[in-house]
Amino acid sequence: MLLFVLATLTASAFAAPWLKDEFEPCSAKDLEFEKCAVRNIQLAFTKFRGGVPDYELPAFDPWFVPEILMDYSQQGIEGHMLVKNSRAVGLSTAQIQAFRANLTDPDNLEFQVDFYIPHVFVEGEYKADGKIVTFPIGGKGIYNISMDDVSGTWTIQGYLVEVNGEKYMKARHVLMYPQVGNMSVYASNLFTGNDELNKVALQFANDYWPLFYRELLPYAAQGWDQFMRGTLNKLLLSVPFNSLVPDYEQQL
Ligand SMILES: *[C@@H]1O[C@H](CO)[C@@H](O)[C@H](O)[C@H]1NC(C)=O
Ligand SMILES: *[C@@H]1O[C@H](CO)[C@@H](O)[C@H](O)[C@H]1NC(C)=O
Ligand SMILES: *[C@@H]1O[C@H](CO)[C@@H](O)[C@H](O)[C@H]1NC(C)=O
């Protein structure tokens, strides 16, 4: 999704002819810069949900995530989870609420986007193994998660690098710790073949999802950060920072 945030900023820079007709350019010098960016990002969410193959922007609704790896270890609980072939539906319905950019220090650039999404559905495959104290758990199957009222802030932190005399932004972190209003989860085969135990565990997870969510979020966020950073940096290295944020040099 952040690709689109960045793509939109690019658009606002006149630099991308494919977007020029659709988006109102925003200048970093303009007092209305942040409002202007919110409008563009919102428009991008609706317009580019299917992706833009010519610019290697993938579709994001549904959004396909090939693989995320999570390592969990805390208070006698230890686990490794590989989540594969996930498909998320609903991201294009995001309402963009605010945008902030902090460009004062080229070694610590920060962009933030506040969003609200009414409903997100995620499904895919998983493989997990681990133990609770000494009791081993493990499984391999499919999962799905349904979430209502998802809100939060995407944060991109990065710094400027120079390549062939041209400045580019490189992302150091892509952070996201969304709040969720309601959630229901399903996973098959959590205890390799023990259906009864699976049912009990799912009931428990659904009754106490805020607890699990709070515990697992930092680990999910880490896997997410790694995945997004890689994807984002590929895009960022193809767009000089000056066209991403026009008038940046003049601001310094
Ligand atoms: C912007 O970033 C600078 C340098 O990283 C920091 O010192 C400053 O507090 C930030 N400003 C705001 C408004 O967050
Ligand atoms: C999640 O998957 C299970 C098993 O395939 C299915 O019964 C359930 O309807 C799915 N949940 C949603 C919201 O689609
Ligand atoms: C949360 O979702 C569950 C399962 O779908 C549902 O039974 C419950 O009513 C929902 N709670 C709220 C507050 O919407």
UniProtKB/TrEMBL annotation:
Family that this chain belongs to: Belongs to the TO family.
Listed GO biological process terms: circadian rhythm
InterPro entries noted in UniProt: Haemolymph_juvenile_hormone-bd, To_sf
GO CC, alphabetical: extracellular space
Protein name: Circadian clock-controlled protein
A Pfam family assignment: JHBP
The entry's keywords: Biological rhythms, Signal
Extent of the signal sequence: 1-15
